[in-house]
Amino acid sequence: MRCLKYSRLLNLAKMALLIPVTLSVLQGCAAVVASSAATGVAVSQDRRTTGTIVDDKGLELKAVQSIHNALTQDEQNTNVSVISYNNRVLLIGQAPSNEVRSRVEAAVKDVAKFKQLHNEIVIATPTSLMTRSADSVITTKIKSAMLLNRDLNPARVKVITEDSVVYLLGIVTPEEEEIAVDIARNTKGVAKVVKIFEYQNP
């Protein structure tokens, strides 16, 4: 199968914002309607503009393809994730050497323009399926706790867990930052919390 061109991928990303609503109209399914409403609320409460959300997804797609092209066949098992939030890029995962780590960063810089890059890739073997499952559980626990907190809108904080390290991204007030960090630090299984926030006045 041929790789999709970036322009087509970007169009698909834009369409993804509309698909849930379209399905709810065509199918009239209660479950789909509920999912669509939740998606719409999350987007509307995100402090990024819709255009920025689409741009972030497009940046991630371009960066992943560039990293893939930059690695040799023997290096394809390198475990790296690219997260873009409000045009700030976070790289996480494991690389076999500092040389590969640097090459991954260079590959991202070659294809994307962004405000800031945080390279949190560590030199290690890829994490196991069990570790990744545990990371997913940690993320779910944190998001659930945020949902129960009346003073924090979870739609405004992106939570990523990699090998028990929690990364928090978003556009938040100082009060929201304090709540989010406190929830993450007090979640069982979390080894470290890394803040990559931008700040908005209350």
UniProtKB/TrEMBL annotation:
- Cite the BON domain residue spans from the record: 55-125, 134-201
The yes or no answer to whether the keyword Lipoprotein is present is: yes
Alphabetical list of SMART domains matching this protein? BON
So which domain of life are we looking at? Answer: Bacteria
Keywords (alphabetical) are: Lipoprotein, Signal
Q: Name one Pfam family in it.
A: BON
- Extract the signal peptide range: 1-30
Keyword Ribosomal protein assigned: no
InterPro entries this protein is in?
BON_dom, Lipoprotein_DolP, Transpt-assoc_nodulatn_dom_bac
In Swiss-Prot or TrEMBL terms, this protein is called: BON domain-containing protein
